[in-house]
Amino acid sequence: MHTSTPGSFVDQRHAPRLELITAEWQIAADLSFCDMVLWYPHDGSYIAMAQARPVTAQTTLPQDMTGTTPPASMGPVLERVFTSGQPFTQTSDDVGGPPGVSAWPVVGQDETMAVVTVHQNLVSQRHTSRLEEVYRQSANDLFVMIAHGTWPAQDSKASSTSHGNPRVGDGLVRIDAHGLITYASPNATSAFRKLGIRDAVDGRQLSRLVTNQLDLNLPIDEVMPTVLFGRQSARVDIETRNIVLSARSIPLLDDQGQHFAALVLLRDITEIRRRDEQLISKDATIREIHHRVKNNLQTVGSLLRMQSRRMKSDDARQALLQAMSRVDAIALVHETLSQTMETTVDMDDLLNRQFTMAVEIAAGSHPVSTRIEGSFGQLPGHLATPLALVVNELATNAVEHGTGPDGGMISLLTKRVHTPGQPHPYLKVEVLDEGVVDGPEATAAIGSGLGTQIIRTLVESDLRGSISWERQLPDKFGAAGTRAVVLIPLDH
């Protein structure tokens, strides 16, 4: 055998179907107590694209087969199944092939796309029981549906990837075409008892059993009947006052596409639901805290504004206005964080507003215009406050030192850059003004003000980045001046 990179050679017409198979086939692996390998034709042979191991039994293939070619004994079996479109099982007349291995064609769009091999562990044979018989029969039904292109259903991935999705080991119920229970696993029986169902369930209608336990005053999910009758590949939550069960149905179809039975997986998600509610409550509390902090900071900003109007000294008034601008910057961050529950924040609206507001406050009555180019994009929430303060201070400094009585233009340029040899990108933030810095002494004097000290501290400590100031040659707008450049690593 040799290894190869799986997936890079797959026909894009086949990719969605194969991804759906690998998203769902853990159910079949658990029901069959077998390992499963997906083989795709490539360069005259086959490549293992994915492998699934059963949770219900010991693995047969301890070494991952993904990316390898098949052993010599398996090659003819794969070719036979792929070309004929017919399964190969150990009950076939001309068995051959590796012992304990069956193979099934993966069909979609009326063509065979790949082959799935099922590897049974012959060393640790399981004691035959009713559970094992039903599980293996159900697995075989799913393999037949794979060969007919009817399982997994196109709408099954949404229910299989959702939070708290039921698994085979959580509880399995098999029902016939009329919704009558033909088998319930021990864990499924335990789930029924939690619902309040104490009697034997074999031969009874699953839908009626469950709905009899529901509170009549609570609304019933319209999907519930189709799930409990096994008519649709879907998932529904069954809620009572004391317990929440997640139920997922898998319709079983014959070779004519007719519904003859269904599997219903059950899982007690009461604790998961309780934790979700706690998280939602905590998120709501955090958002409320951000909202209240924003209100308090806006009050502080208003007080500073009122105090500045009483100042007779221009320097004192300007100092209060700068303090007010910093408070408003933090308040704007908390306002943004109060409106989202995500860990990342869309910084464009927040920082563009902050930049414009800082320029307007610092400019006063002077005619200073702004120009904004580029995008900050989505950034982690913990970067919002220091980044907003940095933009605020850079804008304020640019107005103070880069404009005169006749006003001018302040520009904010943003982009993400990739440095050769660095594993992560950088966020590059530039603020340009039209003031000219003459000589090295003047350049060194840039770092002597309080605003610049605040910028350096925030950039180097909170953002783990760097800042520099450069002479700006005339750009496409004909403006020359000073350019402040901030580089922030985006690896955190």
UniProtKB/TrEMBL annotation:
* Record InterPro entries: H_kinase_PdtaS_GAF_sf, HATPase_C_sf, PAS-like_dom_sf, PdtaS_GAF, Sig_transdc_His_kin_sub2_dim/P
Which residues does the UniProt record annotate as the domain Signal transduction histidine kinase subgroup 2 dimerisation and phosphoacceptor? 288-353
Q: Write down the superkingdom of origin.
A: Bacteria
Q: Which GO terms describe its molecular function?
A: ATP binding; protein histidine kinase activity
Q: Identify the residues that the record assigns to the Histidine kinase PdtaS GAF domain, covering every copy.
A: 14-139
Keywords associated with the record: ATP-binding, Kinase, Nucleotide-binding, Phosphoprotein, Transferase
Give the matching Pfam families.
Answer: GAF_PdtaS, HisKA_2
Residue ranges the record marks as coiled coil:
none
The record lists the catalysed reaction(s) as: ATP + protein L-histidine = ADP + protein N-phospho-L-histidine
Task: Give the Enzyme Commission number.
Answer: 2.7.13.3
Q: What is the protein name given in its UniProt record?
A: histidine kinase
